[in-house]
Amino acid sequence: MAVILIADDEENIRTVLREYAEFEGYSVLEACDGMDAVRMAKGNRVDLVIMDVMMPKLDGFSAVKEIRKEKDVPVIMLSARVEEYDKLFGFEIGADDYVTKPFSPKEVMARVGAVLKRGKRENRKIVSDGLSIDIAGRNVLVDGVKVDMTPKEYELLFFMAENAGLAIPREKLLTEVWGYDFYGDDRTVDTHIKMLRASLGPYREKIVTLRGLGYKLEL
Is 87 exposed, middle or buried (0-12, 13-18, 19+ CB in 10 A)? Predict the structure, then answer.
């Protein structure tokens, strides 16, 4: 169960976010000012911080800087300030996302899920026989030798690795790897699968063709 620290000086905001977070299955800690947020983050296991910018004692930006001195925990900033430079500053200090008030609690929870999922994905390293897939480092090793691939080959392999053992339709691969606005067809996927298999060399057979459907990566 992921632990979320909600830091906001408005009690009603903390209450609403707590209710939605607990409904999603998260464990919640609360802080009512910046100093309290730093103490809570440093003294407890925290998987993600929802941090308000304008808080007493220590503002959210400064609190994030202090927390990041000891923990590389993902942060979603909350703020009533909509100026672009505020958002840019938030991202410069390492915020993973920035939500302006007023906001939808459902949207915040969706962003929480996306950030946590991204963190898990980026930290994953998958090893199968002589094939090593390091998603965080964007490295692929075949029998200890680094393989140079195109950006789309990396994205395709990483997505298939995250869904190893599952049948993935070509349409799903197009959507997830190329995006909703891509106007190519199934042949684009087939061509890149062929290139990816060539890059994997002796482990090319780990990519299984599912006739009439798509592909599956067996690790």
Answer: middle
Identity (one letter) of the amino acid at 157? L
Q: pTM higher than 0.90 for the full model?
A: no
Question: What amino acid occupies position 135?
Answer: I
The length of the chain, given as a count of residues: 219
CA distances from 126 to 77, 121, 145, 157, 219 (A): 31, 11, 15, 11, 9
Query: What would the pLDDT profile of 20-56 be if each residue is shown by its tens digit?
Result: 999 999 999 999 999 999 999 999 989 999 999 999 9
Is 82 in a helix, a strand, or coil? coil
Taking CB atoms within 8 Å and a gap of at least 24, the contacts of 148-152 are: 148/199, 149/195, 149/196, 149/199, 150/195, 152/177, 152/178, 152/192
Domains of the chain: 3-122 (3.40.50.2300), 125-217 (1.10.10.10)
**Angle (CA) 162 166 172, round 5°:** 80
Write out the two tokens for 193.
């699968």
